[in-house]
Amino acid sequence: MFPLRGCGRQIAASFTKRQFPLARFSGDSAAPGIPHFDVVVIGGGHAGTEAAAAAARCGSRTLLLTHRVDTIGQMSCNPSFGGIGKGHLMREVDALDGLCSRICDQSGVHYKVLNRRKGPAVWGLRAQIDRKLYKQNMQKEILNTPLLTVQEGAVEDLILAEPEPGHTGKCRVRGVVLVDGSKVYADSVILTTGTFLRGMIVIGLEMHPAGRLGDQPSIGLAQTLEKLGFVVGRLKTGTPPRIAKESINFSILNKQTPDNPPIPFSFINETVWIKPEDQLPCYLTHTNPRVDEIVLENLHLNSHVKETTRGPRYCPSIESKVLRFPNRVHQVWLEPEGVDSDLIYPQGLSVTLPAELQEKMITCIRGLEKAKMIQPGYGVQYDYLDPRQITPSLETHLVQRLFFAGQINGTTGYEEAAAQGVIAGINASLRVRHKPPFVVSRTEGYIGVLIDDLTTLGTNEPYRMFTSRAEFRLSLRPDNADSRLTFRGYNEAGCVSQQRYERASWMKSSIQECISMLKSIEFSSSKWKKLIPEASISTDKSVPVRALDVLKYEEVDMELLAKAIPEPLKKYTECRELAERLKIEATYESVLFHQQQEIKNIQRDEALQLPKDLDYLTLRGVSLSSEVREKLHFSRPQTIGAASRIPGVTPAAVINLLRFVRTAQQRPVAATESPKTGQCLCDTEKLEEQQL
Amino acid sequence: MWRGLWSLVARAARGPCRPCTRQGSGAPAPGSGATIFALSSGQGRCGIAVIRTSGPASGHALRSLTAPRDLPPARRACLRLLTDPRSEEPLDRALVLWFPGPQSFTGEDCAEFHVHGGPAVVSGVLQALGRVPGLRPAEAGEFTRRAFAHGKLSLTEVEGLADLIHAETEAQRRQALRQLDGELGHLCRGWAETLTKALAHVEAYIDFGEDDNLEEGVLERADSQVQELEVALNAHLRDARRGQRLRSGAHVVVTGPPNAGRKPVSIVSPEPGTTRDVLETPVDLAGFPVLLSDTAGLREGEGPVEQEGVRRARERLEQADLILAVLDASDLASPSSCNFLDTVVTSAIAQSHNGNSQRLLLVLNKSDLLLAGDLDLSPELPPHLLLSCLTGEGLDGLLEALRKELTAVCGDPSAGPPLLTRARHQHHLQGCLEALGHYKQAKDVALAAEALRIARGHLACLTSGGGTEEILDIIFRDFCVGK
């Protein structure tokens, strides 16, 4: 058997099906007998599971190290997935064959698309999820993923070696050391430790070290990272108390019913697991002045609120809501935790008061008068690493082959974590195989916006996705995530299954085919009016009107259009998803034309790669101010586009950089320093030629 | 606007902004496909000014301004009458050159207009170009950047590019700053603030409206803000006189009660005339093109001819940029003087306090007839200048005061490139207004927000800012969002 000397249970997924090339263990520095993986992922949360599964999908032998196997897939905060912006991320994770969307389709208890009336570009797929089911389904998925091994164990240190030439970084990670002193070698390591880096839980004035209620924090690892020179910051977040379901008087509260039929998160699912009528409702109640009083009277008992550590502005605790928006009534959503769960999650009531005061506060809320608190709310303070220290492939600048994903990078939310997990998993795997990194541009997806914001601008509060962060919101829609990412995932990363690839291809070609059909069908507006009397088609223009323009009318959909012109449109209404996507494409057609032009300009800048190993602090022959040098040195932008987005990097500096790159290309000496550099310069050159 | 590397440099001119945010997408013909124009000779007054265009619409622009003529032969100077394509007003008789790409400075189709260097002509041609579809004012260094992109500059020439861009953006920034101190800057900042707030509220409605309890009526408030902004922008743009002052000159009207001695007119106007009717003369006054009018003495009644004269005089007064009110210093107590002070002077001053741009200079003539202390008798007199046409005393003071007032009305032509920025202003304000129109039509909130983003991008080109963070700051300040 494979000799894993772990400090806990070891669960090898499809272990027996695989044959390990034993020769790997006698590799350069690896001692015989010490396990060696292509990719080791530390942490089994939402980033860790996606990273491990993605690396394995890409064909890397992967080890997932977690404190406890039974916490894999745990939703430690809200019992829901998705939302506005977050639903976009989930669709993109799914487009890369990630897990969370599919697991949510198997575990939701209340599916509801938000923003239904606000235009398909900003629809927010969301669902209340059964915690237990999610965990079960995620564990089943993870433990049955080919090439993926799961082991319990806490990582205490990293094994480091000399750096590889041609890449930035002062050393290279070779593996990890567990708490019991045992080692695991790895060609890439992904750190997804969430809030565990020097995690500290706060209730009232009590503070005790923990990554999550009941789990030990990682202190040794935090020290290792700090010693390596990583810049560390501190953030805080919180979670509300949990309430016994049977103690709530729902009959006097507003009931929110789910969608019927529910819309699945995943592109490959047509339906979700639950029958529409079996879904559970949510209820709405509100805070009142008495809640404010309790909060304000007890601020002295609340150290989490007093701390200066930055918390999120958009997901504030009830204390910050009361302090910042006094004399207001705030919403509290009562959300089910699962089909057979006795718990209710009071969304909006995140609180760090001492437990008995939390209970007192809860019982003065309408419907909760007799509520029984099962678990108090608490705050978490934790270390995060300044994300400007990682590249867009999520590899660190300092340590080669070390990747960070999830909350460790300063984000908040399951979906943000999952999105980074997929990208880190793919890139850790590509790195092992010496393939170019897989980077999603901000013109291509919310994943790109998220990672570009983090790596070029950093963050000083827990970063959450909003649709307002995306410049190309009308192009980056939940409905078309597959056509944006699935093909790249399949071709460049190999992380996408054949089945998904084929489905996405069929969808894409059907849409293209039908759109050109709709462009070619033209009638006078008066004829259209006769064909589709339901639509308020304006007849003031005498030019012929395309079917595509008719489809833009709010009241027209493919169904209606095909009824008027069955041949050749009928066949495009057979697949509901296709028909809906055609309608959406038509809605945004005219604006998207402009947006495409702009996207091209940005992509042109992003194709201008900067050599990875430039030492900006000492670089000669290029005129840059020391301030700009420092900014470039810290963020290490990979393209001219990214450099130009760093605050403080002036346009003149950008031109100077470009000139430097072109000059260097004419001096082969500079180019031979690294093969990578040479390649970048060639890319630059090609691009310049295209512009001519 | 995020126009890729070749427009990045424009950022500096706008001051700090969160750069990942696109500014003003979808402005007419974005990206490198746009045709740009700029005054490429020096600013200020000069004999000949050269205005250049570069981009695919250059030929169209050249034809539009020289209609009905065809394009001149390539690279040969031709004399053409330039007219404003919209108003068909003649602008100047100018040398034009046509450089079809790639054999041009930038490698694209280029046109050059060598016009007479007065600010009025230059401003007129720039504004006319701005109205040709597909044309927009160039950003700093943009011609050079295009030349670079098309391989028209050698590497050594490129070395100077960064410096040039730095210098140009600096100049533009200084210019923008200068302008931002002024009335226009104040207006723009106010508009940008309103728009940003409206956009923030629409964005909040999109990102948080469903799940959080935003107050009722967020969208309605945004709608009314947009409405207000539209009215303000429309009024501003309709005030075409502002743009025309430098071209056709500021309107200066000399008026006063009969026999007050409106003779100082003769100082600047070579033409004597009867003052029964309004008399208009284009003159160069302290370096400014001025359309000078002398009105009939404002006296009611007395025959149809005089009445018509008075009617015309009143009409003129209403249209004036600057009123030169002349009173007889020795006759201030007379009924006609008092009447004039009450009706014309006081009302004009009151209006200018209400934000009306009309200005007034009060001149007390015949100061030679005054005895010391005479003026103390009428302390309620508004600020005034003393003049004696007889002795010439106070004449220099009057000219200096006129120069100051005209500077305020027309902008100081020696203080940098106001002409260019005026064209930029017009371009972006028009673009903003168009986008606001799209906002109102959009049924889909995402499309509506996109229109506001575009509108804000245009204003951000005139002020600065325009980042996402600014929006989020407003959202989190104004709303308690998140659960």
UniProtKB/TrEMBL annotation, chain A:
Keywords attached to this entry: FAD, Flavoprotein
Reaction catalysed by this enzyme: 5,10-methylenetetrahydrofolate + uridine(34) in tRNA + taurine + GTP + A + H2O = 5-taurinomethyluridine(34) in tRNA + 7,8-dihydrofolate + GDP + AH2 + phosphate + H(+)
Q: Which PROSITE patterns match?
A: GIDA_1, GIDA_2
One GO term in the molecular function aspect is: flavin adenine dinucleotide binding
Which NCBIfam families does the annotation name? mnmG_gidA (TIGR00136)
Quaternary context: Homodimer; forms a dimer in the presence of potassium. Interacts with GTPBP3; forms the GTPBP3-MTO1 complex composed of homodimers of GTPBP3 and MTO1.
Family to which this protein belongs: Belongs to the MnmG family.
User: Under what name is this protein listed?
Assistant: 5-taurinomethyluridine-[tRNA] synthase subunit MTO1, mitochondrial
Originating organism: Phyllostomus discolor
UniProtKB/TrEMBL annotation, chain B:
Recorded hits in NCBIfam families, A to Z, give:
PRK05291.1-3
Q: Which family does it belong to?
A: Belongs to the TRAFAC class TrmE-Era-EngA-EngB-Septin-like GTPase superfamily. TrmE GTPase family.
Pfam families recorded for this chain?
MMR_HSR1, MnmE_helical, TrmE_N
- For the G domain, which residue ranges apply? 263-366
Function noted in UniProt:
GTPase component of the GTPBP3-MTO1 complex that catalyzes the 5-taurinomethyluridine (taum(5)U) modification at the 34th wobble position (U34) of mitochondrial tRNAs (mt-tRNAs), which plays a role in mt-tRNA decoding and mitochondrial translation. Taum(5)U formation on mammalian mt-tRNA requires the presence of both GTPBP3-mediated GTPase activity and MTO1 catalytic activity.
Q: Origin, by domain of life?
A: Eukaryota
Under HAMAP family, the record lists:
GTPase_MnmE
Recorded GO MF terms: GTP binding; GTPase activity
InterPro entries per the UniProt record, alphabetical: G_TrmE, GTP-bd, GTP-bd_TrmE_N, GTPase_MnmE, MnmE_dom2, MnmE_helical, P-loop_NTPase, TrmE/GcvT-like
Q: Which reaction does it catalyse?
A: GTP + H2O = GDP + phosphate + H(+)
Q: Name one GO biological process term.
A: mitochondrial tRNA modification
Q: Keywords on this record? A: GTP-binding, Hydrolase, Mitochondrion, Nucleotide-binding, Transit peptide, tRNA processing
Q: How does it assemble?
A: Homodimer; forms a dimer in the presence of potassium. Interacts with MTO1; forms the GTPBP3-MTO1 complex composed of homodimers of GTPBP3 and MTO1.
- UniProt KW Glycosyltransferase keyword: no
Needs which cofactor? K(+)
Q: Which residues form the MnmE helical domain?
A: 155-480
Q: What protein does this entry describe?
A: 5-taurinomethyluridine-[tRNA] synthase subunit GTPB3, mitochondrial
Write down any Gene Ontology CC term.
mitochondrion
- For the region Disordered, give the residue spans: 252-273
**Compartment annotation:** Mitochondrion
The root-end lineage is:
Eukaryota, Metazoa, Chordata, Craniata, Vertebrata
Ranges for domain GTP-binding protein TrmE N-terminal come to: 35-152
